Amino acid sequence: MPYTHRPAIAGWFTGEGDDFRLLGTRCTACATVFFPREDVRCRNPNCPGGALEETPLSRRGRIWSYTDTRYRPPSPYVSNRELPWEPYALIAVELEAERVVVLGQAALGVTVADLTVGMEVQVVPGVLHEDEDTETAWTIWHWRPTGVAA
């Protein structure tokens, strides 16, 4: 039976395939963009404050920094402790239009050996965790170098 896909963090991303986008918020007074989203008030200390509007973020950006995970993170990170730990790449991506850096995992199969600072990447949907008991796949965003097939 196929798993039901549910966002691991509601309201942070939307869409599927080529329509997949991260969702941030933009202050209507100063145009500052926030990710993760801000729903209470503008965090820009130089802003008098304005309404915050949801805004889809750029799908592509450039690698600002990256590293790999060599150990299993502590709770609340969910992983099957009966399986061996599989390291994964973690990428900080600068979205030039929004002037923000967004952290996320690399797409499945992408390692630190495949990455360089300044490389263009795009946001793609990914799976954070599959819960066999509830048949739920908890979805998240991943970063994949452009020109690499899904």
Task: For this entry, give a set of tags.
5-stranded mixed beta barrel; globular; 150 residues; 0% helix; 4-stranded antiparallel β-sheet; mainly beta
Care to describe what's here?
This protein is an all-beta fold. Helix content is 0%, strand content 43%. The protein has no helices and ten strands. A five-stranded mixed β-barrel has the order 6-7-8-10-9.
Low-pLDDT parts are none
Kindly report the spatial arrangement of strands forming the biggest sheet.
6-7-8-10-9
Order of helices and strands: EEEEEEEEEE
Average pLDDT number: 91
Rough shape? Answer: globular
Distance between the termini: 23 Å
Largest sheet properties: 5 strands, mixed, barrel
Helix content range: under 10%
Beta-strand content: 35-45%
Beta strand count: 10
Q: Give me the secondary-structure category.
A: mainly beta
Number of helices: 0
Radius of gyration: 17 Å
